[in-house]
Structures are given as C-alpha cells and as structure tokens.
Amino acid sequence: MAYLDHAATTPVRPEAVAAWLGAPSGNAASLHSTGRAARRVLEEARESLAEQLSCDAGDVIFTSGGTMADNLAVRGIHMARHTADRRRDTVVVSAVEHHAVLDTAAALADGGRARVRVLPVDHVGRVRLVEAEALLADEGARITVLSVMSANNEVGTVQPIAELAALAQTQGVPLHVDAVQSVGWWGAPPAPGAAISVSGHKFGAPAGIGALVLPPTIPCHPVVYGGGQERRIHSGTLNVAGAAAMAAALQASRGSTLASAEPGLSVVDLRHELVVAIRDAAPEARVVTSPDALPGIVSVMFDGCEADALLMLLDAAGVECSTGSACTAGIPQPSHVLEAMGATAAQARSALRFSLGWTSSRADIAAVAKALPEAVARARRASAGARRAS
Ligand code: PLP
Asked: Annotated catalytic, 220?
C-alpha cells in the first residue's frame, strides 16, 4: 500500500516506540517508588517538550490529543474570562478551523454561553488580516478568546500567526493556536504568550497523547473534572508512556526536519514530484494547495468526481489518501474549508487530500501516478451515471 495520509496520522517513529517501551508502568500520582519513577519520566517528557516548543515546562498540560487540547482552550478560556466579566461574551474563530475548535465554539453558542464571530478567509484559505484587525478593534473588549490554527489540515494553508498574535496582544485578547498540523515540521508557531494545541500522532507518537501549552497569564477553567492532575485545569491519570513517546517523536521529527524516506529528497521535493505526477495523470485536476503551504499536503479537486468514490477506487488500487479532513470523512458533507475558500459544494465534494511524511518515498508517487487515470475515469463515469439517474 502507498500511504499518503500522514496528515491524518503519521506512522509511529522508532524513537517513540523505544521511549514508550522504556516508560515505567506506574501511576505518576502514586507516592511509592514505581509512581515516583513514572513521575520522573513524565516530568522529563514535559521538560523536553517545553524546550522544543520554547515555553516553560509548567506551561505544558498533557491531554489525550489535539481534540481535547482544542476543547480545553476554547471552552476553558472562554468560560474563565466570561465568568470573570460577563461583558466578555464573544469567541472568535476562523472559518477554516478544525471541527474540534468550530464545534466547541458552536456548542458554547447553542448553550447560550457565547456569541461566536467567524473570521473569513481568502481564496487560498488565509485569514484576512484587515478584517481580523477591524473585528478586534471594534469588539476587543467583548472577546474572550481568538482561535486560529497555524496551518490547515485539509489544504495546508499557513496562517499569519505572528501578525494575529500582535493584533490580539494590542487588544488584550488571549490567542489560541491549533498547531496540531505544523508543530512536527516547524516547532512552536510564532506567537509568544499564546495557548497552543499539540497532538502526538501527527508527528510520530502513538494516538492518545497531546498537550495544551497554556501560559499562566491565560485563565482557563477545566472542561473535564476529576483528580486535577494537571494544574487543576485538566484531570485524568497521566499517560506517562505516551508523554515520553510524544517528546521523543517531536525530537526525532524536529531533528530530521522535512526528511523523507527517499535519500537526499525532502518532503517538499517529494510533494513537488507528486503535484507534477497528478497533473500528468489527471490534467484537468485542480491543485488547491499553494507551494508555501505545510510541507506534506496536496489538496486536489477532481471536477465531476465524488471524492468518496475516488478514494475507494484509489484504495482498491493500493493508494491510501483522504477526502478533506479525515475527521469529517464518512459524513457526506462538502469540506467547510474549501467552501470558505469559495469552492462550490460540488467542487468541495470532489477534493482529495494526499499527505506525505517521514516514511514517504518515490514509490508512493509512482503508485499515485499509476492508479489515478483509471480511478478518475471510473469515478467520473459513476458520478455521471448517478446524475442521470437522479
Ligand atoms: N486540529 C487539527 C488541525 C487537526 O488536523 C486534528 C486532527 O486531524 C485535530 C485538531 C484533532 O487532533 P486529534 O486527532 O489528536 O484529536
């Protein structure tokens, strides 16, 4: 199988496996020797992550992954600031956020706890700074939290985080950056003082471990209640082996920055070859991803095809990729990201995401080039047949 779905989950790195297997099995809250050994490994992992993310170790709150970190940031920061001053009632998100952010904001609004303002994006999916600036200037006093991702999981577009951080700081608004897709490539986003979501399985740790970097200057209420293990802001028995694996995986991915499995070729080089191969194999396909996007991602619209059908045909031909975001796959809805960028519903339903990573090689590109022409032709015939029948 050619695996081109690294943005969904990248294979576990050997360094993470070693760290995972080497971690003691005790509970880091236990007072006996095994518990203390587990606590030591956990705190070493926290320090290693902090160093790699340029923050203080005390800022790192371990979570079960990116979704938990996003929920905690958006709901927790909003509720803390709203409770302290009821005039602050507004959550601001970009239109292309992951559902972990969008749906948390929507749930706050549905529960009557927040007003939500959505920042529009341009045709490449980038937040329009002029509109962000105007919104922050007009409504800054009402805003509890501004949440914008560092890079998009469907099309790879990188957001102007440094500029947004400066705008938010001027208005005294806490910024939350969902850096789940970018951290493994580029480390911390350029937003000192921001809350940052991280997820281990995107850069080579097993799924089930993540973190929210939360500086002490940002108030945050818990979302999950229990033992209060993480600064009383987050609860649950700590995943020591996962934390150790995540720290090791981040170290390995940062150390081998952008390296693919093809000797001498970076992931960016391979992506370029993939784009050329897709254009040769399906000349009418439209590559949506811009060259300055996240290194591994290529999003492509195949007009006249339903992406779900195309995905299954490619899978049968030995190529694994995804329709838009894996987290919304299976739900027959057009990608909200592509729609926010101006695509029609039909176009947004025709998009596949190919994503490369540290195990990718030229063999993966060759597999796409071989499988694509036949798969596209069949998917197009199926779509045309379905249109005639309806
Ligand atoms: N945020 C972004 C940008 C993502 O791409 C994902 C996963 O696809 C998440 C959040 C959710 O992370 P997790 O799968 O660790 O819950």
From this structure: no
The CB of 177 under 6 Å from ligand 1? The reply is no
Q: Which atom belonging to ligand 1 lies closest to the Cα atom of 149?
A: 3
**93-144 pLDDT tens trace:** 999 999 999 999 999 999 999 999 999 999 999 999 999 999 999 999 999 9
Q: Which of 6, 102, 150, 181 to mutate to test the pocket of ligand 1 (most atoms within 8 A of CB)?
A: 181
327 within ligand 1 shell (Cβ under 6 A) = yes
Give, for ligand 1, the residue of 180, 186, 209, 212 to mutate: max count of ligand atoms closer than 8 Å to Cβ: 180
- Tell me the CB-side half-sphere exposure of residue 253, using CA atoms within 13 A: 32
For 185-240, the pLDDT digits (tens) are 999 999 999 999 999 999 999 999 999 999 999 999 999 999 999 999 999 999 99
| Structural domains of the chain ordered from first start | 14-255 (3.40.640.10), 259-389 (3.90.1150.10)
Q: 199 CA to middle of ligand 1, Å?
A: 7
Which conformational region is residue 54 in: left (phi greater than 0), alpha (psi within -120 to 50 degrees), or beta? Answer: left
How far is it, in rounded angstroms, from Cα 26 to Cα 56? 25
What integer pLDDT is reported at residue 293 of this predicted model? 96
Dist CA 84 CA 9 (whole Å): 38
**Above pLDDT 90, what percent of the chain?**
93
- Tell me the backbone φ, ψ of residue 18, rounded to 5 degrees: -60, -45
| Distance of CA 355 from the midpoint of ligand 1 (Å) | 14
Distances (CA, A) of 83 to 75, 76, 92: 12, 11, 17
Separation CA 169–CA 174 (nearest Å):
7
CB 302 within 8 A of CB 346: no
Q: How many Å lie between the centroid of ligand 1 and the Cα of residue 328?
A: 11
Distance CA 176, CA 77 (A): 9
